Amino acid sequence: MIIDVITLFPEMFSSFLLSSIVHRAIKSAAIQVNFTQLRDFGIGKYNQVDDYPYGGGAGMVIRPEPVFQALQSLQFQQNNRPVIFFTPQAPLIRQTDINRLCQLDNLIIICGHYKGIDQRIRDAYVTEEFSIGDYVLSGGELPAMVFIDAVARLQENVLGDMESALTDSHQDGLLGAPQYTRPAVFNQMSVPDVLTSGDHKKISAWRVNKAWELTKKIRPDLIDE
Ligand code: ADE
């Protein structure tokens, strides 16, 4: 999967792409992440990319021309490439979205900044918009990293144990069951007996039950769905 990221701050991604599972996904060529510096398509002597909002108000808005030129440099129209924009004004991204999008061969992510990007880019060229939560970040770079992490770990042969992706929280619409490791007793707290029983049927039933219990308590909205 080839991911092209249009951003003013590619350096924000450096340590992220060099760590953990995303790094492994890149090394094995399961994913490739390229950057397009939006500033390179800025306007005038100062490579300006933003401007005051029409109608007034605080903050700056990213102008449409640099974004369009950056998109064109990635041949987005010729190749019909999906273009994703992260914004708090969009539906929350869900595991079901990740499961679908991780199967694409390539996509483009536009990272907004300041007050966002000119609406005309969103109307005409962005194919999907997502929010990563009901709070406001300073830009789309962190959401892009969240997205890249979530799709990278689902690429073939990236996780050692494919089952571990399938048993993640949200993969079956529920939160995951609690996990324990050694020691069996820690500060007078014991691991639930069932997990050390060796009875795999019982362990499985316990996990399903705990997943339901936890989801009902913490995220009843997931059960209502
Ligand atoms: N950009 C700024 N805040 C965001 C959010 N919560 N989700 C996605 N993109 C954003």
SSE topology:
Elements lengths: L1 E6 L6 H4 L2 H8 L4 E6 L12 E2 L9 E2 L1 H10 L9 E4 L8 H7 L4 E5 L8 H6 L3 E3 L10 H12 L9 H5 L18 E2 L2 E2 L9 H19 L1 H5 L1
Parallel strand pairs: 1-2, 1-6, 5-6, 5-7
Antiparallel strand pairs: 3-4, 8-9
Q: How would you describe this protein?
A:
- There is one protein chain.
- The chain is an alpha/beta fold.
- The protein has two domains: 151 residues, Alpha/beta knot; 56 residues, tRNA(m1g37)methyltransferase, domain 2 (Trp Operon Repressor, Chain A, Orthogonal Bundle).
- It contains nine helices and nine strands.
- The strands form three sheets. It has a five-stranded parallel sheet. Strands 3-4 form a two-stranded antiparallel sheet.
- β5, α4 and β6 form a beta-alpha-beta unit.
- The longest helix is centred in the last third of the chain and has 19 residues.
- The protein is elongated, with a radius of gyration of 21 Å.
- 27% of the residues are buried.
- The mean pLDDT is 96.
**In angstroms, what separates the terminal alpha carbons?**
31 Å
Bound molecules: adenine
Helix percent reads 25-40%
Mean pLDDT value: 96
Radius of gyration: 21 Å
Order of helices and strands: EHHEEEHEHEHEHHEEHH
The amount of beta strand, in percent, is 5-15%
Give the CATH superfamily of the largest domain: SPOUT methyltransferase, trefoil knot domain
CATH topology of the largest domain: Alpha/beta knot
Count of runs of 4 or more consecutive helical residues: 9
Pairing-aware structural class of the strands and helices? Answer: alpha/beta
Count of β-strands: 9
From the 3D coordinates, which CATH architecture of the largest domain would you assign?
A: 3-Layer(aba) Sandwich
Largest sheet, if any? 5 strands, parallel
Count of the domains: 2
Q: What gross morphology would you assign?
A: elongated
**Which regions have little confidence, pLDDT < 50, spanning 5+ residues?**
none
